[in-house]
């Protein structure tokens, strides 16, 4: 910016006092300060916008680099999986040929045994009912479901009747 020393500012102030006059000088100084502040804010906003655009460009570059690296890693993993699956398939066919006596080589499919579904035999109702009633009462397990209004009516003192 401009390089103003104390002597230059004092000279400008003396000339302004003579030219403008002592009555209007405070109002002019206030207006100049206001305009100078606006100019500084405008310059700061422009700098911030330029910095944001630079950071956005850097983030876009970083994003493209990351996407390229992820794509390369995905392709490498895909190649390895394909190579491993083909090697496993060839080993499987070789062992199937030896096991079936060449039936797999003739085009016949090997039967794959599938286990039958067995129910886990978990009956939570039975487990819940196996707890003794005295234990449930002592530990506050609710055995009968009641609505909130029924619970309030149950524990209301006798003779008070319904509220109105």
From TrEMBL:
Topology within the bilayer: Single-pass membrane protein
Predominant location category: membrane
General function of this protein: Part of the twin-arginine translocation (Tat) system that transports large folded proteins containing a characteristic twin-arginine motif in their signal peptide across membranes. Together with TatC, TatB is part of a receptor directly interacting with Tat signal peptides. TatB may form an oligomeric binding site that transiently accommodates folded Tat precursor proteins before their translocation.
Name this protein carries in UniProt: Sec-independent protein translocase protein TatB
Name of the gene this protein is made from: tatB
Subcellular location: Cell membrane; Membrane
Keywords in alphabetical order: Cell inner membrane, Cell membrane, Membrane, Protein transport, Translocation, Transmembrane, Transmembrane helix, Transport
Gene3D superfamilies linked: 1.20.5.3310
Compositional bias annotation for Basic residues: 119-128
HAMAP family: TatB
Assembly information from the UniProt record: The Tat system comprises two distinct complexes: a TatABC complex, containing multiple copies of TatA, TatB and TatC subunits, and a separate TatA complex, containing only TatA subunits. Substrates initially bind to the TatABC complex, which probably triggers association of the separate TatA complex to form the active translocon.
Record-stated family: Belongs to the TatB family.
Key word Lipid metabolism present: no
């Amino acid at each position: 910016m401009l390089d103003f020393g104390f002597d230059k500012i004092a000279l400008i102030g003396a000339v302004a006092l003579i030219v403008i006059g002592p009555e209007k000088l405070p109002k002019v100084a206030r207006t100049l300060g206001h305009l100078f502040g606006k100019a500084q804010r405008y310059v700061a906003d422009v700098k911030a916008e330029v910095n944001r655009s630079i950071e956005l460009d850097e983030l876009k570059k970083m994003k493209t680099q990351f996407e390229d690296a992820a794509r390369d890693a995905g392709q490498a993993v895909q190649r390895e999986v394909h190579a491993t699956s083909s090697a496993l398939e060839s080993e499987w066919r070789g062992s199937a040929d030896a096991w079936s006596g060449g039936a797999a080589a003739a085009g016949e499919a090997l039967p794959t045994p599938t286990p039958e579904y067995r129910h886990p035999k978990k009956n939570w109702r039975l487990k819940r009912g196996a707890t003794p009633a005295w234990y449930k009462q002592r530990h506050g397990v609710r055995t009968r479901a009641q609505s909130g209004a029924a619970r309030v009516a149950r524990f209301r003192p006798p003779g008070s009747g319904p509220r109105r």
